[in-house]
Amino acid sequence: MKMWQTLSRRRRVEITCADTAFLLNTLLNEGIDVCNAEYCNELVLQMTVANNDYKTLCALAEKQGASVKELKRIGVFWTMFTLGKRPVLLAIATILLILFCYLPSRVLFVAVEGNESVPANQILEAAEECGIGFGASRRQIRSEKMKNALLQKIPQLQWAGINTSGCTAIISVREKSVAEYETNTEKQVGSIVAARDGIIQNYTVFRGNPLCSVGQAVKAGQTLISGYTDCGIYVQATKAKAEVRALTSRELEVITPAPTAKRGELIAKKTAYSIRIGKKLIKLTKDSGILGATCAKIYLEEYVHLPGGFQLPVALIKETFFTYSDEGHTSAVTDDNTWLYSFARSYLHDTMIAGQILAAQAEVNALDGASYLYGRYACIEMIGQVKYEQTILKDGPND
Amino acid sequence: MKPRFVARLTDKKTILLSKVPLVELSGRNRVLIENHLGVLAYSLEEIHVKVAYGILVIKGQKLQLLQLNGEQLVISGIIEALHPIGGKA
Fold this sequence. Notes:
The complex is a heterodimer of chains A (about 400) and B (about 90).
Chain A: H1 2-7, E1 10-16, H2 20-29, E2 34-39, E3 44-50, H3 54-63, E4 67-74, H4 76-84, H5 87-102, E5 109-113, H6 120-129, H7 138-141, H8 144-153, E6 157-165, E7 168-175, H9 178-187, E8 190-194, E9 198-207, E10 209-210, E11 217-218, E12 223-226, E13 228-230, E14 235-237, E15 241-257, E16 259-277, E17 280-283, E18 295-305, E19 311-331, H10 332-335, H11 338-351, E20 356-367, E21 370-382, E22 384-388
Parallel strand pairs in A: 5-7
Antiparallel strand pairs in A: 1-3, 1-4, 2-3, 6-7, 8-12, 8-22, 9-11, 9-15, 10-12, 13-14, 15-21, 16-17, 16-19, 18-19, 20-21
Chain B: H1 4-18, E1 22-26, E2 30-34, E3 38-42, E4 46-51, E5 54-68, E6 72-85
Antiparallel strand pairs in B: 1-2, 2-6, 3-4, 4-5, 5-6
């Protein structure tokens, strides 16, 4: 009965009349059901009647000279009717209801366990590319396809398993041991090719079949040591291993502004904080300042992470400004050309593998307010580069 | 001698057919009256209900009509006394 009363449309009314008992009897004779009749005083009575009986009640009360005052509308219908007048509340309630149904089937956080040498971030990035990320379906991420995709993305992993606990996806991994990983690369078939043009000076072959000779001019990409060896009745395929040194020629251009500012001593240091929410930047410190030529800045951005590694689009930004004294300008051309020469040499040394410069021809000129160095260098360096044979996977990308 | 359950059924039938009021008191807080003929007087301390044989007076405190329709009348509150008044059997 109570449930029906909640569902049905009812009205709470207050009736003022001379004889409340007589009115109740009249209502009874007319077949009007009265609920929760409450005696207020000799003349006033409060009661609840069905919405359909309200008009009859009013007519009867008018006949008897009584007054009817509506106090409240009761029932689900009226509640929904009232909600209809509050669209924002209704919209929020609807969204919450949808989220309530939708969220439990989705992954909100991702956690990694079992990794030692492979960084968790790398696994999380690979997992996100495989579809294991924020909002992914819980049912889908537990599939074998996902696990295999993850293993393909990160070859250092031997095994991966994905479980869900609530809204958190837990990626459990087991890494291959280092020896096992190296053995795998050793098992691949590969040749050694020339990384750049040159004339071969000497070579030492540890494994493979040499296809070049000393004094031979080779071009970049040309196979020097093949991984395939014809043994007569079969062809042996291995990963070639060799050291090939060749004479190479390198050209270098270095340009630097002619007048360069020289930094003096540190005068002042200032720190400014700001918060980034999405693309919006809120500066917490006044006068962040405009950087001058004698000012340097260290910029540090710390994003907020939830347990499981999920990154929120909220970051605390710390900017440290350093102000130095100005000690004037110097010209690289007029003052010190040796800096350009030494820079060019050190740059070449860094780019070569076990190489050295045999001869150099370089000159510095002034060009539109800048110092311009052009040099040609004869070098001897290692030009061998491993090139693995292509392997075609049945259901995946080709390497 | 009639068996007991037959006698009980016969009594019930008699009650239903004759439209005599059926009063059910649940503890001290609720009275259900069936086959009533209306309310004659209503206050917080006393309610007079018209029944076939006369008037049934319910006395108590904070009396309230929980339900009133043609079939039954439910009164709640602290029931102190039930007085049937009337000559007809």
